[in-house]
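Here comes my example:
=====
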Amino acid sequence: MAEKQRTELKREVGMGGVITNVLSISIGSGIFLLPALVYGILGHASILAYIFCGFIFMCLGLCFGELGSRVPDTGGLYVYINRAFGPMAGFIANILYWMGVGVLACGALMNALADIAGSYFPIFKETGMRVAFFAAITAFSCFLNFKGIKDSMVFIKILTWTKVLSLMALVSIALTQIDFANISWEGFPEFGKVGEASILLIFAFLGGELAIANGGEMKDPTRTGPMGFIIGIVMVILGFCTIHLAAQGVLGDLMLTNQEAPLAELAKVIFGETGFLLVLILSFIAVWSTLSSIITLLPRILYAGAKDGLLHPVLSKVHPSHGTPYVAILFLGVLEFAFAASGSFRYLLVLVTGASLVIYFGAVLAYLKFRWKNKSVVPNYFRVPFGNSIGIITLIALAWVFFQLSNNELLAIGIFILLLAVIYILRTQIKKRSNQPIIN
C-alpha cells in the first residue's frame, strides 16, 4: 500500500469537477471584451461567428471525449499524442503544452489580475507590489495543489460558480430589456467577415481541454472525463451565445463606442455606476478562476511526461500522503512566477495560439489513428457516432484556422517545434551512448 501511495495519484475528481474546470478555463477574461470586437466586424449578424466556432469546438469536444475514454490516463492531449505517434511526438507535445501554452498563459493571467486590481487600487501598478502579488497568488495556488486535487477543486468551484452564476444573473436581467431590432439582420454577411470574426472568437474557447489532463485522478475516467468535458463544452457554447445576444440586444451600436468593456457598459445600463464596480470584481474572479484551474492541472502534464521517461524522473514523484505530483507542482510554480514577474512571457505569447492549435491537430490525428486501428486501452469506451467524418471535418477546420495566423506566429511556432525536435534527437543520442533506456 505504501508503494502505491508513492507512485499513484489519488482518484478524487468527479464529473462535476471536470465540468467546473471546462467552465473555469473557457469562460475567462475574453468574454468581457469579445462581444464588442465581434460586433465591430459582423454587426447585427455577430451570432453567426459564435455558431461557427461552437460547431468547431463541439466537434473537438467529441473527439477529445472519445480519446479520454480510450486512454484514461493522466496527461490529456499529450498522452494521446504520445500513445499514438511515439516518444518524439510526445516529447514535443508535452513541452509545447506546459511551456508553450500553460506557463505563458499563467504569466499573462497573473498580470491581467494585477491590471484589474490596479484599475481601482493604483498601488497594484507599482512593480514591487505586483511582484509580491504574483508571489502570493502562486504560493497560495501551489499550496492548495500540493495538499491535493480535492482541496484545489473546492476553491476552483467557489470561484467558477460565483463567476458563472453572476454572469447568468446579469444576462437574465439583460434579456428582459432586449431590443429585437438590435439582433435582427437581412441577408448573409460576407464569408470572409464571418471568418475574420471567428478567428478572433475561437481563441476564447481555447484551453478547456486541460480539464481532462488529470485522467489518473478521476473516479471513473472512462465516463467522467468524456461526459464531463462534452457537457462543459456545450455549456460554454450556450453561455457565450447567450452573453453576446444579451449585450448586443441591449446595447446595439453602443458596443462600437465601448469596445474595451462591453459587459461593463451593459452592467452600467442596468445597474448604473455601481455596475462598473460589479463587473470589475466579476472580471477579477473570472481571471483568477481560469488561472487557478491552469495552475492546478498543468503539473499533471509534466508529471505524465516524466512518468513516460521523456523528462527527468524526479518530476514524476508523488507525495506519499497527499498523492500529488509535488515536484512538478513546485517546478511549474517557480517558472510561472518567474515569467509573470519578469514580463518575459510577453515576448513569447505569440506561441500560445499556434501551440494550442498544433496540439489540437495532433490529438485529432491520434483520435483518427486509434479509430482506424481500433486501438483502445479499455474495452468499453465512449465511441462518437459518425466519428471518422467528425474527425476529418475537425482537421479541415483546424487547418483553416491555423493558416489564418500571422507570419510571425507561424514562424515562432515552427522554430519552437524544430528546436524541441533537435533537443529530443540530441538527448536520444546521448542516452544511447551511455546505454540508458530512452523511455520507460
